[in-house]
Amino acid sequence: MTSWVDVICITVVFLSLIILSNYRVAAMIRIFAIQSFVLGLLPFFLHAFCISNRDVILGVVTMVLKAVLVPSILFWAIRHVSMRSEVKPIIGLSASIILGAMIIAGAFWVSLSLKLPGKPASDLILPCSLSTVLLGFMIMVTRTRAVTQVLGYLIMENGIFLFAVSLFDVMPVLIEMGILLDIFVAVFIMAIVVNHINEEFEKNPASVTFSKMGETF
Amino acid sequence: MLIFSHWIIVFLLAPLFVGVIAKVKAFFAGKKGPSLFQPFFDLQRLFQKDSVYSRTTTWVFRAVPIICLAAVLLLALLVPLGPFKAPLQFTGDIFLAASILGLARFFMIIAALDTGYSFEGMGASREAFFSCLCEMILFMNFITLSLAQHSISLSSMIGGNLPLSWKLWGTVLILVVGSFFILILAENARIPIDDPDTHLELTMIHEVKILDHSGVDLGFLLYASAIKLFVFAGILIPIILPIEPVNKVMDMLIFLGGMLAVSIAVGIVESTTARLRLNRVNHLLLIAFALGFFGFVVKMWKG
To answer: Contact, B222 vs B13, CB < 8 A?
Structure first.
């Protein structure tokens, strides 16, 4: 069963790398949904052959919330704001990919000196969650659209989820549920805010160019 | 003797491999498609024709088809094909493999420039750029595999007990296989990177460089690219499928099944994906490199 956990870990990191190298917001959201779905499979593989109710609840809630609800809200947001579909990276995509590979190596190097209190299900969980968090952080920093920054934040949260699952047995399920609810509310608020920015700009269209909508700077 | 059996396999099966890919693509398009042996008929037709040379070309242009064919035949000798061990193996032959590929590519580029045709020059420049990235991917994968197998000889790196260590190195090998598959598509000018069927000069990479070749020369180049694809698949298969030199017939069947699977996979990728825009190709190649690098990092992490 450990090998399946390993496969899920590297898939999650790989998908964050794909999101980093993508130039379409819609494709980014779709890949994020796949990543969340893969993460939602993780609790089923944690305890070999004895799946408890907690595992099922956490997995199903994660899948429904992050692979279905959050992406659909994001899709609603980009459709409603009708902003251009290409991301505007501060650094080029090629440079982002190379930087992402270096970040992964760095995360693995840093995790050499990190010791966990318990024994996680797989030794890849810690470095992979750290890489995902850092890649999400990088997406947040280097993309200028509001929606892509929220995506970066969500990928960071996916990384934290991966890490939390390794400590799943000692952590109350309530905390994880609370975090999931927070994420949901945060994305909801973001969608409303982006929508309001749009409406505000629509009132006086002469003062702002169309392409600036939904950008934070 | 071993050399000739290797070459016979390569000469017989490589065009068939291309034929299977064409068949899969025809199936996805809802067509019946040409016969599996169509590449053989095409080559036969080309070999019966004479070559036409432009007045601006020199001897380099005429020598290139032969050099390319010779290079891939030499490359084929380094790779184990099913039950037949690689006739040529020594420590460090991965560098020979990479430099043979580089040699063939260099002469292709030189020949393209030799014609003095602006589109061929564009193709040459694209090929030089993308192959530079391809070589990075190739070496990244070779480094990971050689670390896993403690050897820098190609045939002991990919053969032996590597497929049996999927339990141990599964995650590493998934990354290597994924990265190598993109490399196969890129090196052999298959669809997400380059379309082998298109003759639109503005977008093609590999095909544009053989525009001026004709007759026997073109036949040599087509044969060479078919063999190159076959040999690359031959490197990929021993990583995935266990081929133990116990039962020759069984080995051959496993090898042929693997070849069939790879050609079907390539055909599916070709018929389900669109060709990438030219300035996105390097992103795909860099992703393949990042995959290979990630595999290397995981290998180092696992010790």
So the answer is: no
